[in-house]
Design goal:
The longest helix has about 30 residues, at about 265-295. The protein is globular and about 70 Å long. It is mostly helical. The protein is built from 22 helices and no strands.
């Protein structure tokens, strides 16, 4: 029991609404400083500093900055116009646009919160004008935003790859098929709801081939960026970290010289958003690494692996147990933080059971992202409700069918690993 006191304290601090990074640091200092383990606290500070000295982690601020530039350079607007041309004629047209835009945004921003915030500002007001309820608009915005971290270059994918020591490129490639499947399942759910509520299409008729081609020409520079990133990493032109820097350069060039909407005066705001987003993520990562020093000291991963293997006699039962744990934790803790805390604990047991780490990574990401749209503390739930001045009760009522859909997809991805591993195996 003595060994698990910091974990108990950690969850107590979570429920007291202490910021995650400070809760992690507090639990670690309690263990090494108050319980008296013999380790000098200076070593904890060294771990804190050393954790930030990681070249692969530079990819995180670069992709955050690229996502911010998108919103000021006209890229997001072109992607939305392309999505409307392709899906606006369907029943519930703007809700389908919402989902497809998340797919297109995922190839550049990689952040669920960034995607949800952008769509709350840009697309939801238009949905309300067309007769969609605010609760439904918020629910589909939050639900579709989980696609963004799954389709490369998702920031959570990068974090998992670093924690599990798997190829970032392979992790990126593994995200494409699950991301598309989730988008398709959400669109199917929207079609059923829209038909019942008589939500009208945003276009009177299907776009002609000429209209699609015309809009494609306007949006092509925004659409090619994900392919440039993945292809460049695949053939070895640049590393994932360098890919982030290249994404920033390309979005700046597109904003200045192609769409001509990016202004020098906007850069202070872009840099401010980048610094804020990066500092939040990095502080959590560093604090989690410090907490990992306690886990290693007490051999918690080893003990947990033994416990999981004792009660789970097959990979399928272990995956079921992992899913239940992640769904519960994801309801209380932000996705990135949950990944950082739980991945080191769960990966050893999964590997001993022969579960592919790429498969496990996608299952974990999808699972944790579902937690982000569910009560009581889902981050995308709070974000959309606060930006749209919506009561949580209204959001919960509207999100329920989408959560059911996402859980069905999660079950399929969990027990048919070939869906996740198809593209990575094809490209080996």
């Amino acid at each position: 029991m003595y060994s698990f006191l910091p974990i108990i304290l950690l969850f107590v601090l979570f429920f007291l609404n202490i910021p995650i990074a400070f809760a992690l640091m507090g639990a670690t200092v309690f263990f090494f400083g108050i319980l008296g383990t013999g380790m000098d606290l200076d070593l904890i500070m060294q771990t804190f500093i050393r954790s930030a000295e990681s070249f692969p982690m530079l990819a995180i601020p670069f992709f955050i900055m690229a996502g911010s530039i998108m919103n000021y350079s006209g890229i997001s607007k072109r992607l939305m116009n392309m999505a409307e041309v392709l899906t606006g004629h369907l029943t519930g047209g703007l809700a389908h646009v919402n989902i497809l835009l998340s797919v297109l945004m995922g190839g550049i921003s990689g952040s669920a919160n960034a995607d949800a915030a952008m769509q709350c500002k840009v697309l939801v007001p238009e949905m309300e004008k067309r007769g969609y309820s605010r609760g439904f608009s918020a629910a589909i915005t939050a639900a579709s935003s989980i696609v963004s971290p799954i389709i490369p270059p998702g920031i959570v994918l990068i974090i998992y790859a670093l924690l599990s020591n798997v190829s970032v490129t392979k992790m990126f490639i593994a995200g494409y098929v699950p991301g598309v499947i989730i988008a398709g399942a959400l669109m199917f759910t929207v079609a059923i709801i829209a038909k019942k509520r008589n939500y009208k299409p945003s276009r009177e008729k299907r776009a002609t081939i000429g209209e699609v081609f015309t809009q494609f020409k306007k949006s092509v520079w925004a659409l090619i960026l994900p392919f440039v990133i993945i292809l460049g990493m695949r053939i070895g032109i640049f590393t994932p970290t360098e890919a982030g820097a290249i994404a920033v350069v390309i979005t700046i060039l597109i904003g200045f010289f192609v769409y001509k909407e990016l202004k020098i005066s906007q850069f202070p705001t872009i840099l401010k958003e980048t610094v804020y987003g990066t500092s939040t993520v990095m502080f959590i990562i560093i604090a989690a690494n410090v907490f990992g020093a306690y886990l290693s000291w007490e051999r918690i991963p080893f003990l947990l692996t033994g416990l999981l293997l004792k009660f789970n006699t097959s990979p399928w039962s272990l995956l079921l147990f992992i899913n239940i744990i992640l769904l519960i934790v994801g309801m209380f803790i932000d996705g990135g933080a949950a990944m950082i805390i739980l991945a080191p604990l769960l990966i050893p047991a999964a590997l001993k059971m022969g579960i592919d780490p790429l498969h496990l990574g996608i299952v974990m990401v999808v699972n944790i992202m579902i937690g982000g749209v569910t009560p009581p503390f889902g981050s995308m739930m709070f974000l959309t409700c606060s930006l749209l001045d919506l009561k949580i009760q209204e959001f919960i009522k509207e999100i329920f069918p989408f959560v059911i859909t996402l859980l069905i997809v999660l079950f399929v991805l969990t027990y048919i690993p070939g869906i996740v591993l198809f593209l990575p195996n094809l490209l080996n």
